[in-house]
Amino acid sequence: MFANREKDSQASQDKDQPRRRQARGERRIAQLLEAAATVFTTTGYTAASTNAIAREAGVSPGTLYQFFPNKEAIAIELGDRLMHEMRETYGEALGPVDPATTLEQAVGQAVDRFIAFNCEHPVFFALMHGPDIPGRIAEEHDALHATLLSRIEGLLSSFLPDADPADLTRTTHMCLGLYKAGLELVLAHEGAERDAYVGELKNALTRYLDPLVGARLGHITAH
Is the pTM higher than 0.85? Predict the structure, then answer.
């Protein structure tokens, strides 16, 4: 009987070992990705190196190469994870608008959500908007950009339901362009100054959209 218990115990330990190894591997990958995020944000993608990433992570280059063959593979894995999180973010930020929600509230809520994501993950801006991002990340970013435009257009259509499609598309592109320009300024500052730039960005978007929404409402009332 004891022999059977020993066999069962050994079998259980054998099963646990791969799980423990997998958990350690996942922790190491997370550690390397966090280090890569710091290096990419600080130096940019081109100037970054696997040695710098390994040094930031506190491991040897040999350990890094057990998980990633080069810095492009690291950037792609990091980009994949960030884009997955970003899709969740804009899914929440650009959901259907309650009819009672004002334009100022809708703009403020969307900007706050996106700014929070980018401030939490500054490497997202560094990777996605750099001139030298890896090809696969560039392709996925283009797809993300197209989906984001579609979601913004859907949000704007709540306030401009009768707008000409071409006008709505143009307005959507302008809103995203204004946001990106403002985001660069926001990320370049910290503390109270950053908060001030966030406020300016909200004002710029609201003041750009308000006449369009007001003109549309006035046109509907006149008829």
Answer: no
